Amino acid sequence: MASALRRLKWEKFRFLNNLSKRKSSCKQNHTRTICQRKTNQYVCHSQLVLCRTFHWSPVCHELVQFKLADIGEGIREVQLKEWFVKVGDHVSQFDSICEVQSDKATVTITSRYKGIISKLYYDVDDIALVSTPLVDIETDADSPGTTQSGSSSSSSEVSSSSDDEHSMQRIRGRKVLATPAVRRLAMENKIKLSDVEATGKDGRILKDDILKYIEDPSVGKQAKASAPLATPPAVTVEPSKPTPVVSTTPIQPRITLPVGKDHTEKIKGMRKAMVKTMTEANNIPTFGYDDEFDMSALVDLRSKVKAITDEKGVKFSYMPIIMKAVSMALTEFPMLNASVDKTCENITYKAVHNIGIAMDTQDGLIVPNVKNVQSLSIFELATELNRLQSLGLAGKLGTSDLSGGTFSLSNIGAIGGTYARPVILPPEVSIGALGKIQTLPRYDNHGNVVKKHIMCVSWSADHRVIEGAYMARFSNLLKSFLENPGLIMLYLR
Ligand code: CAO
Predict the structure, then answer these.
(1) 289-305: per-residue pLDDT in tens?
(2) Which residues contact 201 (CB under 8 A, 6 or more apart)?
(3) DSSP code for 290
(4) pTM, to two decimals
(5) For residue 461, which of 367, 323, 322, 330 has the smallest C-alpha distance?
(6) Dihedrals phi, psi of 370, to nearest 5 degrees
(7) What is the CA(401)–ligand 1 centre distance, in A?
(8) What DSSP letter does each residue of 431-442 carry, written as one string?
(9) From the CB of 325, is ligand 1 less than 6 Å away?
(10) How far, in Å, is the centroid of ligand 1 from the Cα of 406?
(11) What is the reported pLDDT for 40?
(12) In this structure, are strands 170-171 and 174-175 parallel, antiparallel, or unpaired?
């Protein structure tokens, strides 16, 4: 009996000795006793670490409040979806405790302590807030979470900003997969997860990977350099929306290709003429008007006529028909085939229709014109257009072909595009741009969706002398000609 009493006193002495060591290891610099005996519990108030002793024993079980760590992506609360443990269960480090769901991700929370679950703080479907306790764990004496850093510093599960850094790390654009406990282990050892080679399922970084990296950091990097990129993405953390990665530094090219030097040259030739004309054009108050024409009938007609003109060696595009129709419409709207003087005091209605065609050549934009379109047949127009086009491409157009225009067309659709904003060629007062003829769905008169060949036409006119309504009426008449090529035959002189 006396020896049993002596043994009990000895155990009490050892326990108090341990307690004083614990006090001195508290990192909060408390000057007074912070772990004090209180209804057979020892409480470190600042860290919420409960050291419970139910009997005088050399083994000190700590009751740790395991808090919901910051799981990144700005998540502040989660819904508890499933518990994997119940009160009384023994858990080891990295064992799954529960699954939580945020509006962005489903996350499995794992234990960072070894011990017995003594309390669950939430029911399934409850909302748990980040930084609040999830479970209490009565830790084993050899629990890694407590022995590694000491009881006074190990209890808080709330991630700091450096935790965030760990939880959001990415490898080559992919999110690093690791449980919060593994992230914390990495953080405590100041290891970047992106430097560690992952050997877990779906590229997950395991505790062993971190430990291996601690032993030999060079292994992780070398392995990573040769690691295949095709590792499948996250399973445990499944972001419903990709998080944009915004770089704050400009991209530096990995390969420096030889770059030429800037060089300056004189603007001359056709381009010099363009500078002068377009600068002058910019002084004209211009309005724009757009419409779409159904070219289906014309596409059909051209395909039939083309075989005949091909036999005669004449390339037959849509332009000769469009030019003829434009000329017929200009006859009804002569103000568009006119010119004004520099001060816009006089307008001259032109007797002939010399229709300029904007041409894209190596030397730049040129606008030769087909003279007397009103008097030429469509086949003659095609022949004349062929001549101007071949001379233009050869850079051999003469002054007579390039001067005397009364109205202009720009078939930008021959290159591509739907709309353009053509610029008037002074002293002319209007110009039209033709978009690409595209196959598009449209409604017919019976409300059925049908396949149509649609071309958008954009007009520009000098608003000092042309009203919008005038231009719209002209456009409507032209539209009726092009949509019903039979009408061209009817009015052709
Ligand atoms: N939509 C669909 N196809 C078109 C088209 C259009 N708007 N315009 C021409 N095409 C077709 C032609 O029918 C021809 O088809 P095929 O090979 O089946 O016969 C093919 O495209 C080539 O036509 P093209 O360009 O040789 O002949 P064109 O008479 O239609 O046009 C020209 C001649 C000089 C207007 C044109 O070649 C050109 O240079 N356009 C560019 C104009 C330009 O640069 N404008 C911008 C001015 S502002 O900077």
Answers:
(1) 999 999 999 999 999 99
(2) 235
(3) E
(4) 0.56
(5) 330
(6) -90, 120
(7) 19
(8) EEEE---EEEEE
(9) no
(10) 21
(11) 35
(12) antiparallel
